[in-house]
Amino acid sequence: MKVLLVLAHPEPRSFNGALRDAARDTLLQAGHDVRESDLHAMRWQPVLRADCFADQASDAPGVFFNAQAAQRQAVATGTQSADVLAEQGKLAWADLVIVIFPVWWFGVPAILKGWIDRVFAVGVAYGGGRWFDNGVYRGKRVLIACTTGARNDRFAEDGLFGPIDWVLHPLRVGTFNFCGFDTLTPFVAWAAGHVGDEGRSRYLEQWRARLAGIESETPQPFRHLADFPSPAMRNHR
Q1: pLDDT at residue 235, rounded to an integer
Q2: CB-based burial, 151-180: b 16+ in 10 Å, e otherwise
Q3: pLDDT digits 0-9 by tens, 180-190
Q4: Cα distance between residue 140 and residue 183, in whole Å
């Protein structure tokens, strides 16, 4: 199996870094092929802006920057930037993508959101009716691995913050399912900064055991278009 590890944490010695290291070692020992995108180590530029495109002049008077139009044009003319092309190549190569990040402000870190904004370009990751069931990445899987600052009871249905699924829904459904990926049940290391070395060691044991059987895991329910007909479709029934 070909696996892409995407790490979005500024400190390689963090527990997120430990999750990445454990994933790499476990997967390689099991005979899988592994590639990595350590976004901070790569100094990934996360902002989708006009000067990401060769034919855009952001300082020209009266020029209106349309991000989707610029992406379409770059894809059509073969002028996407080298960093974006490299990441798109990794996604095309991978059977499984593992995304590792800390939950910050009930979402993903800015650098990860910026990786998605730039790499999941219209014309490459979606567009022209290619979404959900017809998504570009059907047949590929994603595993989200994240750490939280709070305990799991804070993310319970009746907890202060509500379910972690609320936090991960935009990523799981709005990005990955939308582009055709099947998602596996997220791995969450609750309150990773507060459980001590023993607690973090237990998390790593659970993580390694999880990855040892990752090929046989059943994905989460997929958002099929037929289950969510548009109003126009309903009117013609």
Answers
A1: 47
A2: eeeebeeeeeeeebeebbeebbbebbbbbb
A3: 999 999 999 98
A4: 9
